[in-house]
């Protein structure tokens, strides 16, 4: 009797831990719907009460959400508490620099770890992302290039197999993506060579495929250095433009500009 009363609870804990790991590792992405309880219980080979208990634990922890019909979803609010207050910090140039600088720190390590740890599935995913990026480049589709750029980097974070790294980057995803996008858009309106950008990603891609961690780190670092350099140039250009506009506005505000009349 004692055994049966303890066992379901322990099993539920184990099931909860297992599902939580899948969520934190990114195998179950935010917003994804889980199988119906009956099927899930069969798949995991556990009783429905144990499964229900496990799911309830995860709902309490905010990892899962249920809808009115009782369907279970992976919460899309995981990491929101990190993301939301920070969002506003990234509206200006300073925030964007800091974001890139932080990325530069993480990015190289992530690429190195990915080179060492990527599973076959990870390698397929990184390859798929790189090929899509290449196609976007070929088509000259700036939005697709920005999206695939983000996808590529997230595939690398996933392949690094470090739960902390992936979750921190996930929680910053919208910031990082808007950052990638802003850079991209500016990039094409400015001087930077598209081929150069693709070549930087190719270098990272090939090093990871070759399982060469040192080369992957170097390639990744180079990508971030040149991206930050571009951002600096864009920022300086924007500031010059802004100063010019300010001067113009002040000048035009004068009823009788000096030198005239
Ligand atoms: Zn990139």
UniProtKB/TrEMBL annotation:
Name any one Pfam family assigned in the record: GntR
Q: Which residues form a coiled coil?
A: 227-254
Alphabetized CDD domains for the sequence: WHTH_GntR
| Keywords, comma-separated and alphabetical | Coiled coil, DNA-binding, Repressor, Transcription, Transcription regulation
Task: Give the HTH gntR-type domain ranges.
Answer: 9-77
Q: Would you say which domain of life the source belongs to?
A: Bacteria
Under the heading InterPro entries, the entry gives:
GntR_C (IPR011711), TF_FadR/GntR_C (IPR008920), Tscrpt_reg_HTH_GntR (IPR000524), WH-like_DNA-bd_sf (IPR036388), WH_DNA-bd_sf (IPR036390)
> What PANTHER family does the annotation carry?
PYRUVATE DEHYDROGENASE COMPLEX REPRESSOR (PTHR43537:SF34), TRANSCRIPTIONAL REGULATOR, GNTR FAMILY (PTHR43537)
**Its biological function?**
Transcriptional repressor for the pyruvate dehydrogenase complex genes aceEF and lpd.
In its UniProt entry, what is this protein called? Pyruvate dehydrogenase complex repressor
The lineage, from the top, is:
Bacteria, Pseudomonadati, Pseudomonadota, Alphaproteobacteria, Sphingomonadales
